[in-house]
Design brief:
Helices cover about 0% and strands about 35% of the residues. It is mainly β. It is globular and about 35 Å long. It starts with a strand and ends with a strand.
């Protein structure tokens, strides 16, 4: 059962819990970083994982802006 998502934005440290944002709903995930404007991509991890404790955290999804606008979800 998925209970939410952890988000890791570009330039954040994958081994630090404080680098991850949390959201409960998939519809709230966009490749935008508050205060910094556009972000090239957001790494999305299933909420049941603790990626900051993994040796090499590989995202479940990568969310980015599509080539013709809109949001593009890619499974990693």
């Amino acid at each position: 059962m998925n209970n939410g998502f952890y988000l890791l934005y570009s330039g954040c440290y994958p081994d630090q819990y404080g680098s991850y944002a949390w959201t409960k709903y998939k519809k709230d995930i966009e490749p935008l970083h508050p205060g910094l404007g556009m972000d090239p991509a957001v790494h999305v991890f299933d909420g049941s994982r603790q990626p900051w404790n993994e040796l090499d955290p590989y995202p479940d999804f990568v969310v980015e802006h599509g080539p013709r606008g809109g949001i593009k979800w890619a499974r990693s």
